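Onboarding guide, step 5: your first structure request.
Type a short instruction followed by the sequence, for example:

Predict the 3D structure of this protein.
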Amino acid sequence: MARKKIAPITSLGSEDKLTVQKSLPLFALWRSELTLAEFKILDTYLSRIDSHKPEKRTVMFEKGELEKLLGVKRIRTEELDERLKHLGTPIRLDDSTAKNKRFTRISLFEKATAEQDDYGLWQVELTASPSAMKYFFNIENLGYLRYKLRCITSLTSRYTYIMFIYLEANRFRKSWEVSLDELKEILSCDKEETYKAFKRFNDLILKKILKEMHEKTECRYSYFPVKRGRSVKAIRFEVETLPKQYEAPEQLEMPGFTDSESVFDVSQSETERRDLYRDAFAPYAITDDQIDELVQLARRHIDARGHFTGSALDQQIYNYLLSAKRHAKTNARGEIKNIYRYLLPIIENNDIGW
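The system replies with structure tokens like these:
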């Protein structure tokens, strides 16, 4: 008997209700050359699928839908072909769960079929590649973030889109600092001479992102330059809590824990997170200041392995500290009386080999 053909998904509801469910590895796509238009197509695809039905991996964009999504009246054939080609070209995905640095290059979509009607409107069918399905379906073990599709469909700047993703991934922190160099790298403007001076970077990038974000999304945040001496070296972000009616059904799920036992809860305060890191040092006593110093040292080695944000970063830090303590106990010649003094050179020199 011939296999029954599975019809493509055409819609799961209005754009106002659709929610993007994106696995954490897909957040590394800020490193890719995907354009804003291609990110919008990808997010719309993710909002249409049921992540627990991998057999339905084909989504149909009805006539005129892509044009509306991209904010144009008509898409040129060459332009559409270029967008679909990028989505089918192998891209890099970093594995944040691996002990050693590891990445994979895959194609997100194996097939894209486009048909134009007599009025110039396109109907496009997208099918996920077999290699990409692990990042699209049954992604609970990878961790994922959810946000409303409407938050990104009206954006006109790739910078704003990347900043929106970055803020959503770190929303649970409420307030945090990121180095200026790292932020420029995330926004893919670190090699632009124009943005070398903070004033130019602030005027041409950060202020414009803030304006568009506040005009077109529900994300509300503030940022503050952090000086070291006379120069701005970091940016401090403060994100407001979302009103209940704007929240996605779930914010962040981390791999390896059930809801009842997750140690990386999105509602944690800085004090609660520090207490979790303290557990990595148990049964040794350690002060808050000592924890903060060791965490900062550990993060340098973690950041060298790849870009981690949100709870993925917390998990990496926790695992690193735990590994450092085990290394110390294994190699200690006697009783460890001061775990901080013992671990300081180990973590500073990355003796555990991360």
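Each response can be followed by summary notes, for example: The radius of gyration is 22 Å.
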